[in-house]
Specification:
About 0% of the residues lie in helices and about 40% in strands. With about 70 residues, the chain is mainly beta.
Length: about 70
């Protein structure tokens, strides 16, 4: 992602963006992606697709991943 999104993540409550793959939260390998354990601005990606990082105000950035 090229921009930082601020606020608190809806799913984890930590400072940083809420990460989505499609319309689902990134919750672990089964969802295709997982929030970094220590840094909400980083994401582990397990499968290709469109990933979104959204700020609390609804502003999102997208990245297409080919894995």
């Amino acid at each position: 992602m090229r921009a930082l999104h601020h606020g608190r993540a809806v799913d984890t409550g930590r400072p940083g963006p809420t990460w989505y793959r499609g319309a689902s939260f990134c919750t672990g390998a089964a969802s295709g992606c997982e929030n970094h354990a220590e840094n909400q601005y980083q994401l582990a990606v397990y499968v290709g697709g469109t990933y979104r990082a959204c700020a609390r105000n609804g502003v999102c950035g997208e990245e297409e991943v080919d894995k």
